[in-house]
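From the shared-data thread, chain only:
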Amino acid sequence: MDLLNKFKNSLNANNYKLTRQREDILKIFLENKDRHFNAEELFEEVKKINYDVGLATVYRSLELFCELDIIHQLDFDVSCKRYELNIQGNHHHHLICLECGKIKEFNDRVLEEFENSIQKEHNFKVVNHRIKFYGICKKCEV
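Structure, as tokens:
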């Protein structure tokens, strides 16, 4: 089953409809899986394909999609929240440039091994974790 149908089923199972606006927002996420949108950026992208979508609709859709675990809300700084598609099995961490704000995803086997070690040592089942590294990207370091 493709992701759009999976998300549609999630909406239906919770008594929500996949409106055209919601579908357009989901399509933007699906076409930009590596991007971390804030609401205003997402609004600008959605307006390119559906000029009838309002900013309030984007905010309400983001809230609903977070509630249904379709997307994750990410807090990288106090000025705005960012959102990314929740794809099962795609656990990753983030590198955040303090100069340009660029966000890069990465996976690290050592961090996964560390999580396993914590679980064993403390007899504790970790269900999720988020690791963020802040610094300066190579482009901004120049």
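The radius of gyration is 17 Å.
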